[in-house]
Description:
The protein has 18 helices and 13 strands. By secondary structure, the chain is of the alpha/beta class.
Amino acid sequence: MAVIAQKCPDIKVTVVDINPQRIAAWNDDDLNNLPIYEPGLKEVVAEARGRNLFFSTDIDAAIDAAEMIFISVNTPTKTYGVGKGMAADLKYVELCARQIARVAKTSKIVVEKSTLPVRTAQSIRTILTAEGNGVNFQVLSNPEFLAEGTAVADLHKPDRVLIGGDQDVEGQKAVQALVDIYARWVDRDSIITTNVWSSELSKLAANAILAQRVSSINALSALCEKSGADVDEIAHAIGRDSRIGSKFLKASVGFGGSCFQKDILNLVYIARNYGLTEVADYWEQVIIMNDYQKRRFAANIVKSLFNTVSGKKIALLGWAFKKDTNDTRESAAIYVADYLLNEQAEIWVYDPKVEAEQIYADLDYLNSRSEEENRRLVKVVQTPYEAMHEAHAVAVLTEWDEFKTYDWQKAYENMKKPAFVFDGRNVLNSAELKELGFIYEGIGK
Length: 445
Ligand code: UDX
C-alpha cells in the first residue's frame, strides 16, 4: 500500500488496523520504529506519509470513503477443527467482508490481497451480497508476489502483477481500474489479467513450485553428503541449463517464512477435498522433505559432537527465516533449536535483527517445554562473540552477510576444542575456517 501511495500521489491510501499499537508504530515520527523491518521501506513511508498515505484505526470511516478496498489480513493455517494444521483460517477475511458489507453505502471494488484458497472470492462475494445494503461489489484477486527482505524492490519492479476478475462487463471494468493503478509504474506487458480462480491458484502454485525447487536441491544435498558430490557445484551445473535457471537452488537447512509451508498445506488440503489423493501426496512431499532437512541438520550436530550435546553450549547465528528481515515465521532455526533443546543443549542465539522476546515466543509456541525452561536454556545475546564464547559448536541458520566478515580467528580461540561450525547456509569460507582449525560441515558437502 505504501508503494501504491508513493507511485500515485493523487490517490489517497488509508491503511487501517484494529490494533492501535501497530497503527501508532506506523505513525511514529522515528521511522526506525515502523513495525516491519524491510530495506527501503522507511524511505517510501517518509515520502508518502501525511501526503496521501495515512494510517488509522477508524476502519468504518475508511471503508465509507474508499472506492477500492484491499483485504490484506492474515490467513494463518487453521489450528483447530476441520482442516486443522492444513487449511487456511479465513476468519479474518470473513470478518473484513462482513464489516465492509455493513458499512458500505456506495459501490466498491474489493480486492483480495491476502493469499487465499481457490474460490474464496466467491465466499467474499456471497457475504458482501447477503449482508450488504444493496450496493454493488466487484471482487478482484490480486495476489502479492513480493519476497521479504526485497519487498520494496520487488514492488517497484515486479516480474509481473496478476489481477483476476469476473469475465462480465462490470468485472472487466473493475479489473481495468486496478490495472490503471499499477500501470503508473509497471509495464502494461507485465500486468497479467485472468479469471478470479486462476489468479487465486497462481499464488499457491508459484510458492509451491519455488518451495519444491528448494526441497529438490535439499534432497540432493543429502545424497551429496553420502556420495562425495558437492551440492553447490551441482546447483551451478544444472542452473546453467536455461530451462532450469539458477534461482532457488541454494541448499539450506530448510525453507521457512510465512508463505511456503502454509500455501503448500493449503494446496494439499484443497486437492484432498477434491478427492485428488495423488496430487495432495505429491505436494505434501515438499513439506516432508523440508521437515527432514531441518531434522537432519540438527541430528548431524548431535552426532558430530560425539552423540551428545547435553550441557554443551551451542551458538546459533541467525534466527530469521532468511537474511534482511526480522520475520521468524516457520524459520528453520526454531526447529533446530527445539531439537537441540530436547537433547539438553544450552543454546545461545545471536541475530542482528530479531528481538529476544520473539525468539522466546517462537519456542513457547511449540509447547515442547515450559516457558521458564526455554528462558533458562536459551540465552539471546547482543554480539556474535558472546554467543560463541566457550561454545562447543556454532550453527549458521540464516545467511546474514555480516557472518562472513566476523573475526573467525578470535571466535576460534575462545571456543571449546574441537571447535565445530555447522554452516546451514553454506555462506562461510570453509577453506579459511578449516585452516584456522575449525571442523567445518556445510550442507551437501
Ligand atoms: C515467498 C515468495 O518468494 C514470494 O513470491 C511470496 O510472495 C511469499 O513467499 P518469502 O517467504 O519472503 O517469499 O521468501 P523467499 O525468498 O521465497 O524464501 C523462502 C525460504 O526459502 C527462506 O527460508 C529462504 O532462505 C529459503 N530458500 C530460498 C532456500 O533455502 N534456498 C533458496 O535457493 C531460496
